């Protein structure tokens, strides 16, 4: 059973999402929060698998709430997905830096919401390649030396796998491109995450762009 926390200051949004999620046999909404501080407290109390958190909320915004959840060793199993509106790109990349596994727009169709919750629960990133490239182009114009130095810890094959992951490829697609098995591709990604201290695949993507391993021009 996938345990979900909903955090949004609009009761109508929460009730709509809850009604949809509760219809699924494998998903259960275990808590609702009206602000970021409450979201953090409920994440600590209920330990959800997925936290759907609105970016703009009173008391504490969703980005700070995400940062606190992502930095808490006791909450490593909580995968945060940010809820946003169109035209808020400047917040989205900041949310990824804070530790979010991805983001969804609030007018998402029901089927895509359910798919996103299941993807996030598996620990995969919710990053549409076209949107990610746009965000990276705007907010990571210059590679960061520290991020580049961290990549020195990776083997050549791990770097190749990370670069492909940063382009939005799944493990199966990475395996096809590298002519290896999906399990080997997953192993490369997991080892890279461990070496780079990336919380999840989304942070791995951020590091790939910040280090210059992938750029907006070739990504």
From TrEMBL:
<feature type="modified residue" description="4-aspartylphosphate">
    <location>
        <position position="54"/>
    </location>
</feature>
<dbReference type="InterPro" id="IPR039420">
    <property type="entry name" value="WalR-like"/>
</dbReference>
<keyword id="KW-0597">Phosphoprotein</keyword>
<keyword id="KW-0238">DNA-binding</keyword>
<dbReference type="InterPro" id="IPR016032">
    <property type="entry name" value="Sig_transdc_resp-reg_C-effctor"/>
</dbReference>
<dbReference type="GO" id="GO:0006355">
    <property type="term" value="P:regulation of DNA-templated transcription"/>
</dbReference>
<feature type="domain" description="Response regulatory">
    <location>
        <begin position="3"/>
        <end position="121"/>
    </location>
</feature>
<dbReference type="InterPro" id="IPR000792">
    <property type="entry name" value="Tscrpt_reg_LuxR_C"/>
</dbReference>
<dbReference type="InterPro" id="IPR011006">
    <property type="entry name" value="CheY-like_superfamily"/>
</dbReference>
<dbReference type="GO" id="GO:0003677">
    <property type="term" value="F:DNA binding"/>
</dbReference>
<keyword id="KW-0805">Transcription regulation</keyword>
<dbReference type="Pfam" id="PF00072">
    <property type="entry name" value="Response_reg"/>
</dbReference>
<feature type="domain" description="HTH luxR-type">
    <location>
        <begin position="147"/>
        <end position="212"/>
    </location>
</feature>
<keyword id="KW-0804">Transcription</keyword>
<dbReference type="InterPro" id="IPR058245">
    <property type="entry name" value="NreC/VraR/RcsB-like_REC"/>
</dbReference>
<dbReference type="Pfam" id="PF00196">
    <property type="entry name" value="GerE"/>
</dbReference>
<dbReference type="GO" id="GO:0000160">
    <property type="term" value="P:phosphorelay signal transduction system"/>
</dbReference>
<protein>
    <submittedName>
        <fullName>DNA-binding response regulator</fullName>
    </submittedName>
</protein>
<dbReference type="InterPro" id="IPR001789">
    <property type="entry name" value="Sig_transdc_resp-reg_receiver"/>
</dbReference>
